Amino acid sequence: MFCRIVAGEIPATVVHRTATTLAFRDIDPKAPSHVLVIPVAHHANVIELATDPAAAADVLATAAKVAELEDLTDGFRVIFNTGAHGGQEVSHVHAHVVGGAPLGPMLSAQR
Ligand code: AMP
Fold first, then answer.
1. Which letter, b or e, does each residue of 5-20 get, where b requires 16 or more Cβ atoms within 10 Å of its Cβ?
2. In what helix (H) or strand (E) does residue 59 lie, and over which residues does it extend?
């Protein structure tokens, strides 16, 4: 589905764009700043992205640029949800860049 955002077929609020990446606001933000960074080239998840080191580096560089553009000087998180246990809903790899307020503990305690 994120390929359709790259193609301009689905609207998105673009924060930053490079030749190889696109950063746009999450439609259902979980923090004051919540931006998704994707590679233009389709990779299903972070395991596939790791087989394309140039694309992986570009995604991280764009995540860092987003943090700068969003003025996340007090810190932020970069999250790649992966697979069923990771809660991945969209199978086009995306880094969540979240910040703008204290984010609390990274995970809730195991039960
Ligand atoms: P994940 O669970 O890691 O796969 O995250 C998917 C994210 O994509 C969720 O945070 C959704 O809110 C977000 N999302 C789904 N559709 C869109 C869309 N059309 N534009 C922006 N964000 C979206």
1. bbeeeeebeebbeeeb
2. helix 53-69
> Residue 90: enclosing H or E segment and its boundaries?
none
Query: Does an H or E element contain 4, and which?
Result: helix 2-6
Dump pLDDT digits (tens) for 27-68.
999 999 999 999 999 999 999 999 999 999 999 999 999 999
Residue 34 CA, closest ligand 1 atom number: 10
User: Does 58 fall in a domain?
Assistant: yes
Mutate to test the pocket of ligand 1, among 24, 27, 43 (most ligand atoms within 8 A of CB): 27
Number of domains in the chain: 1
